[in-house]
Amino acid sequence: MIPGLEPGEDMELKLKELAQELGCELEGNGEVEIRAIAGLREAGEGDLTFVANPRYLKYVEETRASAIILSPSDPPLSKPTLRTDNPYLAFARALEIFYPVSRPAPGVHPSAVLEEGVELGQEVSIGALTFVGRGAHIGDRSILFPQVFVGAGSQIGEDSILYPQVTVREGVRIGNRVIVHSGAVIGSDGFGYAKDGQGRYRKIPQVGGVMIEDEVEIGANVTIDRATLGDTRIGRGTKIDNLVQIAHNVQIGEDTIIISQVGIAGSTRVGNRVILAGQAGVVDHVQIGDDCIVGSQSGVAGDLEAGSVVLGSPAIPQHLFKRMAVSLPRVPEMLKSLRNLERRVQSLEEASGGRP
Amino acid sequence: MIPGLEPGEDMELKLKELAQELGCELEGNGEVEIRAIAGLREAGEGDLTFVANPRYLKYVEETRASAIILSPSDPPLSKPTLRTDNPYLAFARALEIFYPVSRPAPGVHPSAVLEEGVELGQEVSIGALTFVGRGAHIGDRSILFPQVFVGAGSQIGEDSILYPQVTVREGVRIGNRVIVHSGAVIGSDGFGYAKDGQGRYRKIPQVGGVMIEDEVEIGANVTIDRATLGDTRIGRGTKIDNLVQIAHNVQIGEDTIIISQVGIAGSTRVGNRVILAGQAGVVDHVQIGDDCIVGSQSGVAGDLEAGSVVLGSPAIPQHLFKRMAVSLPRVPEMLKSLRNLERRVQSLEEASGGRP
Amino acid sequence: MIPGLEPGEDMELKLKELAQELGCELEGNGEVEIRAIAGLREAGEGDLTFVANPRYLKYVEETRASAIILSPSDPPLSKPTLRTDNPYLAFARALEIFYPVSRPAPGVHPSAVLEEGVELGQEVSIGALTFVGRGAHIGDRSILFPQVFVGAGSQIGEDSILYPQVTVREGVRIGNRVIVHSGAVIGSDGFGYAKDGQGRYRKIPQVGGVMIEDEVEIGANVTIDRATLGDTRIGRGTKIDNLVQIAHNVQIGEDTIIISQVGIAGSTRVGNRVILAGQAGVVDHVQIGDDCIVGSQSGVAGDLEAGSVVLGSPAIPQHLFKRMAVSLPRVPEMLKSLRNLERRVQSLEEASGGRP
User: Which of A124, A187, C66, C140 is the most exposed place for a label (fewest CB within 10 A)?
Assistant: First the structure.
């Protein structure tokens, strides 16, 4: 943070100060006052805007923003410009400066219910109507918003945030700087049954836990089941979008991106830096290597080697899927051509005195 | 409401009164007493039933209902009948009459937690264990059931209903006559990250809001993310079923229907009177025109012109999809025919002295 | 339970006692002390492990477990072994013995809110910050964890468990030994609207209920809508995984398995012992016979006869789907072959003096 600067709605920074703060190269008038960040088309006087995707460059000349963040390869501009190799990252940092998070004051709200043996770190905030079970541990500066549930013996690290109405069942470990959004359920029972002699399902007790490593973010209404034995694990820096299902004993690597409504079945292992696009599904007990990309709505039914890029249900390599997507709509016409060809060949055969 | 009539279980109306109330034409004995509404096959003595879908007409003669709502084009019936162009709408109104909603008494339950500066309209109900953040505004006659969360500065209009365990994060605006079902999360952070120099994801602060217009209904466990900047918007009269995902900066038009488990990715615009069927997905940054219909489980990967009807993943025009659905299962047999044909052509070529 | 045995972390059983308890045949040293249950590869000294899936037999020789549960047909082993026809079921029972569920003490937490006329059976536990509406009935030994909502007049049977933040709306009946996981919503309004004369949607009041029969288990963040009239019904022993959507008036049979993220549309009937795999969808108003299996991500658009096994969207018989999955990726190459063949046939036709 810039020393002496107070966060809030009245923030105002000269562009040259911002250039220094964001590590950007300044082009044009550095004395321009920036008061807010806005999108290219919504921006007005006093706003800083940005272009991270080249297809928006065409709107650059029309923007009413006072300044703009561009990459060094973007064309020169008449208005003040900040140049950086990563405009999107500079945009993220600018947002952090202009819209600092207002965090609840430390302390335990009188309506919260803490069972015996709860350990609270320094400057922890426990919101109204939140429940923390016996022996749970909440690390320094972590925030539990109102109406959160943390079960007995669970551990939350430092600087983590649990938004309203998160459920963390017993025996779950959550690392540092983790963010969990409202309605997410961590540590629900895995879905496991054994058929008994009468063909009825008997529940397999789910006695394992969940381990969420540092810097993970978990979306709204996500479900992460506890392991049958051992741990379900989400690796450091992995980001999970809303309404995702992670079944028992799944192991997810680091810096992996899981888009909304993806489902990952039991005991599957997903590597590092993987991207699972929206509504994709992965069956149980398979292994997805590092750096794989699984397209939206795809269904992965077997192991994927590191670096695979797949699409479709069942998922196939992307280049093959794209060829199929072009050719499959032609199948009705192919069927006609084939019929026609069969007739012509038959005529030729008859003309040549029957099949050889 | 019919003057002097008390809602409740002991309601009893003559069919002629009901005809007038529902704006239907009466055929047969108007003195019949109606005490309840029931399905065609479940109805008995004293029940009013209806047929909105012609394929159920075959059951009409068997029903034990005392009276029935039909369209003018349906065949004549021996039992008392109410005729209307829109039997389903008359059925809806009859349900409203016989099953009036019992709303909680106005007032704030002593176990609710309201921060400073909360503004409550007239006859507002705040249920037990509900939390309302500082500066939030709840409009006249709106109902917050128990265990609801409304964040700081959020605004709820008049006559709106938030069912138990709804989460409305800070800075969300909700209109009049809006209904939000249990477990829905409105205003969770959008899913946005910028890669830093080390290949790790840095969170883009999500500092925008959500705008829910009048008469919207939002299903159970739906997630609607707040915008990065600006607003995520749901237009007037749009109805959203359970477990739907609406990403940041999505703009939905008016009178649109979004069936269960649909996912709409970031910044996509959906027009008016669109229907998105169950489990469909729409990628980010595309535009779906007015009056489009997207079939169930479809995947929309590009813009759709107004009035498009598409199916499949990737989605293609419906007529093409239907032809494909018929022809694709024949591909294995086509493959055989093709092999066979190749052999026959080769024979012909050999017989005619080799290829020309 | 073995008499005189205290559940807890210090449990220790001789293998011969366990053999008797689990109904297994003992091979080898029955004096071995078992202190925990563990997976094949994670197990160590003092652990009992198991093999239910033959493909894991290859790891049997390497396990460091002190004893192992196998089926009679598995090869003989040098270490102490328990033999049973159903190793997975024996594993489930062993987990029950070594990891007994710690249930909250009976009683009503002082922060819970119970409206007038609530009836509580014997030894019921009502957790902190839980709300029970007027006239609701909670059966003997049932457990409502903290922050649960049970609406007016709803009934919960005996020995049932509602995990934290479950919502049970008014007028829902839940049987005995039912388990409902966090975030599940039972009894939200069905998704039904009638178009009025102006093309706007008018809500159909959803005045029916939900009936959950005995021994059902319902996953985290599942949504089960109440019926328009009558009941949405989940049959005895059916198990529902996380994030599943059950629409209004759906009828599900007994001992059916519904994997995560499945959606079942309104008024559809699903038989007994059906398996609906992950992310499958079923349209409204169809009937799925007993013992059907619907593959993951499949879309069922019509009735299915008992015993059907289907895959794909739209769903087709499994054997046909598998043939298609092999042949469809060959369509691009077929298209080329077809073109090539057309040219060759044209040449032959020209050589033979034109088409006959």
Answer: C140
Helices then strands, each counted (H, E), chain A: 4, 40
Residues 6+ apart with CB under 8 A from C6: none
Of C71 and B352, the one with more pLDDT: C71
> What is the C-alpha to C-alpha distance for residues A226 and A228, in angstroms, rounded to an integer?
7
Q: Which of C109, C137, C181, C248 is catalytic?
A: C248
Q: Which of residues 186-205 of C touch A (CB under 8 A)?
A: none
Dihedral sign, CA of C328, C334, C338, C339?
Answer: positive
**Is pLDDT of A3 > 70?**
no
Binning pLDDT at 50, 70 and 90, where does residue A9 land?
low
> Are A196 and C342 inside 8 Å of each other by CB?
no
Long-range contact set of residues A40-45: C-beta below 8 Å, sequence gap at least 24: A40/A65, A42/B229, A42/B230
Distance CA A267, CA C53 (A): 14
Whether the per-residue pLDDT at B3 is higher than 50: the answer is no
Confidence of residue C101 (pLDDT cuts 50, 70, 90): confident
Q: Which of A41, A35, A43, A44 is nearest to A14 (CA)?
A: A35
The answer on pLDDT for A125 being more than 80 is yes
* Cα(B231)–Cα(B235) distance, integer angstroms: 12
Dihedral (CA of C23, C27, C31, C35) sign = negative
State the ipTM, two decimals: 0.94
C248 carries an active-site annotation = yes
Chain C touched by A92 (CB under 8 Å): no
pLDDT at B284: 97
* B257 touching chain A per CB within 8 A: no
Domains recognised in chain C with CATH numbers: 13-98 (3.40.1390.10), 107-319 (2.160.10.10)
Q: Are A279 and B263 in contact (CB under 8 A)?
A: yes
Least confident range from B90-99, B217-226, B252-261, B275-284: namely B90-99
CA distances (Å), origin A285, targets A288, B281, C126:
10, 26, 38
Chain C residue whose CA is closest to B97: C205
User: How many C-alpha atoms does B208 have within 13 Å on its Cβ side?
Assistant: 25
Q: Residue C82 forms beta bridges with which residues? A: C26, C69
Block residue for tokens 């918007």: B233
Facing C279 at nearest CB: one of A281, A328, A345: A281
pLDDT digits (tens, 9 = 90+) for C167-200: 999 999 999 999 999 999 999 999 999 999 898 9
Beta bridge partners of B233: B211, B251
d(CA B36, CA B91): 11
For chain C, say whether B4 makes contact (Cβ under 8 Å).
no
- Nearest neighbour of B92 by CB, restricted to C113, C194, C334: C194
Return the bridge partners of C67, or none.
C48
| A263-303 confidence digits (pLDDT tens) | 999 999 999 999 999 999 999 999 999 999 999 999 999 99
Environment class of A206 (CB within 10 Å of its CB; exposed 0-12, middle 13-18, buried 19+): buried
Query: Crossing angle of helices B87-98/B15-22, nearest 10°?
Result: 120
Q: ∠B319-B320-B323 over CA atoms, to 5°?
A: 90
SS3 A47: strand
Q: Are strands B36-37 and B47-50 parallel, antiparallel or unpaired?
A: parallel
On chain B, the residues whose CB falls within 8 A of the CB of A183 are: 167, 183, 185, 221, 223
Q: What is the pLDDT of residue A275?
A: 98
> In the sheet that C119-120 helps form, which strands lie side by side, from edge to edge?
C119-120, C137-138, C155-156, C172-174, C209-212, C231-234, C251-252, C269-270, C287-288
Residue B313 with chain A: CB contacts under 8 Å: 297, 313
E-only strand ranges, C206-329? 209-212, 217-218, 223-225, 231-234, 239-240, 245-246, 251-252, 257-258, 263-264, 269-270, 275-276, 281-282, 287-288, 293-294, 299-300, 309-311, 316-317
